[in-house]
Design the sequence.
């Protein structure tokens, strides 16, 4: 039997229509401007990758790989995955094309994670972000964080806080993890059900949001106290740089973030206007071993991803970043069969103006209704009289100025003039 039920979007995946989509456009343009003014170029790469990119990049035990990735065999029986984030794919691009370093890339991308959907958490979300590969200079960490902060500021958000931490390098982290494990073992009985019997990855416990684990980890050893000299100096310079730029921040010793690739600097921005469970509006950090892990040369890296949906929810919650679509300059009302509207719209668009029209030979009344609804400033009306004299009627739909007749050849100038 034929299936006639309408097809709907998948759970946790959303359609975005206008006028809401104007905000997306404006957000991405704003971010592009900020990133490009700081010397970043746009990188684009496929949403589908070989699954082993993410297995190698994040480690098989990371939550994203083990529980959330959309992974499947394609028709050629290759194991593929939809990208769950932007960093590993951008590092793959770097390894494949070996551009000159430091390589400063920005991106806008969908990301796919099979999570339980809720407000602010989707199975397809979108991120704007950057990745910089080729230097471990802590001043770059400052630049990257400042760039993220500049987006929140540009959108008018005022209640976004910044938490920072350092994950150290492989050496100092190994010593710290042992100290943490010993501490957690001492307090094992006080941990949540999941972690009481599972201490193979002590850093995960720091991330656990249950009140039981939070109570225990509050007094746990802090990784910043275990940093070796170089990592400590890196973290100090990073903090001093944020202070110098007036970027408020606090150290959050439990900020470990969900991917195994992080080394040294990690950071997360939280929107206080959102519910605490889903209030991370951006996060990132350094990944100094990732390029090598993915088959490239030794090269340090750092970046961030900012969730567009969550960022817009934060804007709603603070009543900021209301975006109006750019108004059309003219709506052509053609009472002579449609040819005049066809030609005039094309002329106006070629002249760089915004113009629209009705189709299907609608009645004069219906066309005027559409003109009003279109948001255009001016109705350009062509009736049999105007057609005969090579003129149009120029009617201001907003200011209520008296309508007038002008020659067709004067229309572009009249529309330009009416903008002032
Ligand atoms: P992430 O923290 O997993 O990091 O994601 C970055 C941001 O994407 C989050 O702060 C949040 O705003 C948004 N986000 C994540 N998951 C969802 C979801 N299910 N629904 C809605 N929004 C979501 C990364 O992805 C790293 N690649 C960031 C990075 C770049 N680190 C270094 N470079």
Sequence:
């Amino acid at each position: 039997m034929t299936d006639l039920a309408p097809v709907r979007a998948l759970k946790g995946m959303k359609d975005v229509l206008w006028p809401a989509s104007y905000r997306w456009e404006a957000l991405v343009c704003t971010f592009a401007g900020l990133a490009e003014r700081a010397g970043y170029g746009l990188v684009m790469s496929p949403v589908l990758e070989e699954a082993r990119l993410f297995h190698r990049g994040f480690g098989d035990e990371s939550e994203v790989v083990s529980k959330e990735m959309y992974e499947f065999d394609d028709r050629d029986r290759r194991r593929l995955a939809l990208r769950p984030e932007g960093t590993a794919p951008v590092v793959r691009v770097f390894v494949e094309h070996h551009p000159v370093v430091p390589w400063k890339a920005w991106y806008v991308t969908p990301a796919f994670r099979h999570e339980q959907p809720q407000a602010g958490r989707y199975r397809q979300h979108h991120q704007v972000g950057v990745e910089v590969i080729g230097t471990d200079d802590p001043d770059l960490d400052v630049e990257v964080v400042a760039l993220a902060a500049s987006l929140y500021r540009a959108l008018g958000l005022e209640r976004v806080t910044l938490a920072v931490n350092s994950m150290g390098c492989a050496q100092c982290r190994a010593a710290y993890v042992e100290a943490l494990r010993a501490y957690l073992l001492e307090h094992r009985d006080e941990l949540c059900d999941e972690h009481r019997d599972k201490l193979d990855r002590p850093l995960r416990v720091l991330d656990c949001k249950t009140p039981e684990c939070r109570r225990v980890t509050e007094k746990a050893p802090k990784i910043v106290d275990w940093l070796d000299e170089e990592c400590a100096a890196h973290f100090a310079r990073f903090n001093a740089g944020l202070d110098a730029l007036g970027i408020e921040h606090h150290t959050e010793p439990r900020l470990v973030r969900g991917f195994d690739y992080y080394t040294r600097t990690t950071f997360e921005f939280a929107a206080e206007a959102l519910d605490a469970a889903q209030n991370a509006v951006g996060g990132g950090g350094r990944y100094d071993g990732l390029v090598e892990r993915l088959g490239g040369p030794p090269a340090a890296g750092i970046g961030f991803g900012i969730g567009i949906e969550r960022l817009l929810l934060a804007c709603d919650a603070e009543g900021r970043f209301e975006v109006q679509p750019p108004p059309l300059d003219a709506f052509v009302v053609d009472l002579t069969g449609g040819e005049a509207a066809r030609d005039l719209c094309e002329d106006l668009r070629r002249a760089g103006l915004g113009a629209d029209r009705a189709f299907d030979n609608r009645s004069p009344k219906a066309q005027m209704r559409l003109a009003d609804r279109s948001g255009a400033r001016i109705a350009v009306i062509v009736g049999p009289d105007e057609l005969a004299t090579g003129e149009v009627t120029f009617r201001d739909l907003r200011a209520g100025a008296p309508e007038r007749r002008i020659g067709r050849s004067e229309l572009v100038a009249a529309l330009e003039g009416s903008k002032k």
Summary: The two ends are 62 Å apart (CA to CA). The chain has 16 helices and 16 strands. The pocket of histidyl-adenosine monophosphate is lined by residues 85-87, 113, 115, 120-122, 125, 127, 129, 131, 258, 280-285, 303-307, 309-310 (CB under 6 Å).
